[in-house]
Structure formats: C-alpha cells, structure tokens
Design a protein that fits this description.
heterodimer, B: 3 helices, binds S-adenosylmethionine, binds iron/sulfur cluster
Chain lengths: 383, 98
C-alpha cells in the first residue's frame, strides 16, 4: 500500500476531485484559502467544459466530487452539474457558505441527486461571525440553509474555521452543530496560505487558547459520543508532527480552479516555477499521470535527507509543500510544522509573538484587492 | 427528531440500512466494491460486503443471521457474534443507520 508511487504506470487513480466552480463569493473571510490572485468570471469554465471534466474524472476512477469555490451556489448551472456527476456515478458533496442559494435553487440540487452538504460557519456568535465574513445577516441565512438540508433528508457536516477571535467558543460551535442535527462537525484551525497568510497576525490564537480548545473538544467527544462525530484539525504552528497534506502530493486528489487549471492542492500556485496544465489543453488522465506539477513532489524521491531517513516519510509525506514554501522559501524542505525541522522553533516563536500582540484589522478577501485598507470596515454586501 | 440516529442500541429486531448519504457501488477502475460516505471512501472486505449487500432496511438482524447461517452452513452463535460486531462498527462509523 505504501510503496512510493513515482511512475505513471503504477499510479493508482485519484480518489477525489475538488472543483472550484468560481472564485466569486458574497463573503470576504480574511482566512480564505483561495489565492490572492483570483480567476475572473470571464475565465471560468462553462457548463459543457465542467461536464467533460466530470466525465473524464469518473472514467479515471475518481469516486467523489466536491463542488466548492469561492461560493459554488452562485453558479446557475450547479444543479445541472450535480445531476451530471450523479449520472456518471460520482458521489457529490457541496461545500458552501449557505448564503447565496434560495430554497428553490436548493431543491433543484436535491432533486439532482446531491449526496452530502458541508456548510461553513464563521462563528457560533452571530456578531463575530458576520464581522469575520464581512456580511450582515449571514448567520440567519446559514441556519436556514442547514434546516433545508436536514428537511431534505441529506446528511450535514458543519465546518467551522477557528482563529483567535472565535476559538474560545468551540464548545458553542459543537452545540450549534448538534442543534442543527449535523452528523459531523469539523473544526479546523486556520491553515495559513492565501488570504490567511496575509492575515496571520489577525488570526493566530494564543497557545493557551489552543490548549483550552483541545480540552473542550475532548470533553464534547465524550459527552456526545454516538450523537455527532467531531473532527478537530489542530493548528500547524503549535503542532509537532505535520499533517499528511492531501494524503500525499499527487496520490489521491486533484483540485481544479475556476479557469480549469489542475492543481495537486488548492494552494499549489503559491509554489513558483511549477507548470500547471489546464483541462482546456490536456486530458485529465494525462494530467494526473504526467503533469510536471504532479510529478514534482509525488512519492519520496524529492524529499530532503531529513525526511528520506525518517520512518514517517510514507505516513505524512513530509507534510505540506505550500507551507514549506511559504515559511522556509523552499518547497522541497520538510514542512516546518514538523518538530524535527530546523525552522520549527522559529515558526512557533513567530506564532507566539503574533498571538500575544494586539490583533490588527482584517484584510478582507477581495477579487480586486484594494490598496487602501482603511476602507475595509465591515459593511453589508449585496447578495 | 433525528431520522437517521445511530444511537439506538442494536438488537435482533433492528433493521439496519445504509445511512443517508452513504452508497455502495462497484468501482470499475479498481475492480472492487466501495462504500461512498461523506468525506470518506471505505473498501469493505468480503464479510462486510456480504452483509452490506443483504441489508435493505426491512430485514431484521435476526433474519440476516438466519440467511448467513444457511448460506455458510455455520454455527448461529458464531455468526451472530461476528455480525453484531461488524454492524456496531459500521453504525459507529455512520455507514449504517437504524
Ligand atoms: C474555500 S471554502 C469554499 C466554499 C464555501 N465558500 C465555504 O466557505 O464553505 C472551502 C472550505 O474551506 C474552509 N476554509 C477556508 N479557508 C480556510 C483556511 N485558511 N484554513 C482552513 N479551512 C479553510 C471553509 O470554511 C470551507 O469549509
Ligand atoms: S471561505 Fe469565506 S470567503 Fe472563502 S470562499 Fe468560503 S465563504 Fe467565501
Ligand atoms: S522529518 Fe519529514 S517525514 Fe519525518 S516527520 Fe518530519 S516531515 Fe514527516
């Protein structure tokens, strides 16, 4: 099972593909993992192109498709794409902020055969949630959306991204998930790439906040056993072992941007000098097997000596390439989340320092980032 | 209020079924059966597959065990113990619901 998969011929098919249908989004989360340079509407793949992607993915052996973005529900053809995905045998998951679709649109998605919904919240507390998403009235829309999901009989996962402003409420977030009848809640500390890295100081929780959240989650798991599954993704900067990012670069997963670029992970464009192929130019199967961006960090050949000689190398695959890039300046270093990385102490120190300083203002996610950050005061945005 | 609660204890009269959002399908690319669930794909072993394919939400655990006893000409006590363990595991993973 764990043999290095470095050549195209022994390569297993991908398990899942995440389609970023659009980068448009009514919310402006300062931790958004989307890139700073986002795809414009006019460059987005059309309905026929996405359908072809779904056909190719199913043929290649992909089992699950995640519809994400940006906000996938702003695409009028979402239900049509869900129907197509089901027709070719794919398991369909919608990853949504829940603020953009009305009931009729949602019913269309259900009728199209949607299998599962992952709804994101910014906080359990409405005021902070709406400050983080920079969208007045978002919380009520989300709660209503969750109700529609359960009334339709679909399983619901609630996703909450935690940071210094809301991590003290992980208990309330779990309770909210229970009250919404979610089968699972995923509480994830911010991963620092894209907009999140730009906002690191405004988001990084203190270590004691993190420790308290661990205890809260452990107690909730005990209390709610059999009622709800609670997944907790701990913050890399306070971790000792890195995450098995993407379950290994180019081993399980593909991410397709609104304009059709195929990435081994959604942040891969932050690594300079990688060449990404587009579904507009090359068949998906060929991209999976041969795209140089996928080959670059597949298996263990690319690893630094530190990882090559480590017994965890085929468990965590050296961690996150994008984080190594962002924090060490080289994508071929071990993820500095690893306690053995020479950069680990520095990383931890930086996180501690940022978390104890006063939180700067958010720099909100914008398709065209403004130069004047003073104008970033929360304001309602038309849906 | 929860239609797909997995908390109810399993007994002989329970009628387990695939939980909402869970599908069993044959995967041509890998030539094996897969269980597709939210955020997860499981590859059932032979025994699990045998059980999963027989569940329809109408059949009781008692009837399932009886079928397996006949099919494998095996001891009822043993089958019941194995099936109970398997079903409880799948209920906990939310692959099955009662
Ligand atoms: C980028 S969003 C796109 C879909 C949709 N707009 C939403 O928010 O659900 C996909 C998921 O990633 C989560 N997410 C976004 N940025 C993140 C980050 N920096 N770290 C961890 N999770 C993040 C969101 O909460 C959401 O569940
Ligand atoms: S994380 Fe927030 S800003 Fe980013 S796409 Fe989702 S809702 Fe929009
Ligand atoms: S040294 Fe490399 S392989 Fe070993 S735990 Fe750290 S990141 Fe993982």
């Amino acid at each position: 099972m764990n043999a290095p998969r470095t050549t195209g011929s022994q390569l297993p098919p991908p398990m899942a593909v995440l389609l970023e249908l659009t980068h448009r989004c009514p919310l402006q989360c300062p931790y958004c993992s989307n890139p700073l340079q986002m795809d414009q509407v006019k460059s987005e793949l059309g309905t026929a192109e996405w359908k072809s992607v779904l056909d190719q993915a199913a043929k290649l052996g992909v089992l699950q498709v995640h519809f994400s973005g940006g906000e996938p529900t702003v695409r009028p053809d979402l239900a049509e794409l869900i129907r197509h995905a089901r027709a070719v045998g794919l398991y369909t998951n919608l990853i949504t902020s829940g603020v953009a679709a009305n009931k009729a649109r949602f019913d269309e998605m259900v009728a199209a055969g949607l299998d599962h919904v992952q709804l994101s919240i910014q906080d359990s507390d409405a005021a902070t949630a709406e400050k983080i998403g920079n969208y007045a009235g978002a919380q009520q829309k989300k709660l209503t959306f969750a109700k529609w999901v359960r009334e339709a009989g679909l399983p619901l996962t609630l996703n909450a991204v935690v940071n210094r402003h809301n991590i003290d409420r992980v208990g309330e977030m779990i309770d909210l998930a229970v009250s919404l009848d979610a089968a699972r809640v995923e509480i994830a500390n911010v991963q620092y790439y894209g907009w999140a890295l730009k906002n690191l100081a405004a988001l990084m929780p203190r270590f004691d906040q993190f420790e308290a959240s661990i205890a809260t989650v452990a107690a909730a798991r005990e209390r709610l056993k059999g009622k709800i599954v609670i997944d907790y993704v701990v913050p890399d900067y306070y971790a000792k072992v890195p995450k098995a990012c993407m379950n290994g670069w180019g081993q399980r997963f593909m991410n397709i941007t609104p304009a059709g670029k195929v990435l081994p992970c959604h942040a891969a464009e932050t690594i300079p000098n990688l060449q990404f192929d587009s579904v507009r130019d090359r068949p998906l199967a060929e991209i999976w097997a041969k795209s140089s961006a996928f080959e670059a960090f597949r298996g263990t050949d690319w690893m630094p000596e530190l990882c090559k000689g480590c017994d965890q190398r085929e468990i965590d695959w050296g961690g996150c390439r994008c984080q190594a890039m962002a924090l060490t300046g080289s994508a071929s270093e071990a993820d500095p989340a690893c306690g053995k990385s020479p950069f680990h102490a520095q990383l931890r120190g930086m996180a501690e320092a940022a978390s104890h300083a006063a939180a700067p203002e958010f720099q909100y996610r914008r398709i065209t980032p403004r130069v004047d950050q003073k104008s970033d005061a929360p304001e309602p945005v038309a849906g | 209020m929860t239609a797909d609660a997995t908390t109810g204890a399993l007994d002989l009269e329970s009628r387990p079924r695939l939980a909402p959002g869970v599908r069993l399908k044959y995967d041509e690319a890998r030539s094996c059966w897969v269980v597709l669930a939210p955020e997860r794909v499981l590859m059932p072993d032979e025994t699990a597959l045998e059980v999963l394919q027989r569940l329809d939400g109408k059949k009781t655990v008692d009837a399932l065990v009886a079928e397996l006893v006949t099919a494998y000409d095996a001891d009822r006590g043993e089958i019941l113990a194995d099936v109970t363990e398997l079903l409880n595991g799948l209920l906990e993973k939310r692959v099955l619901a009662l």
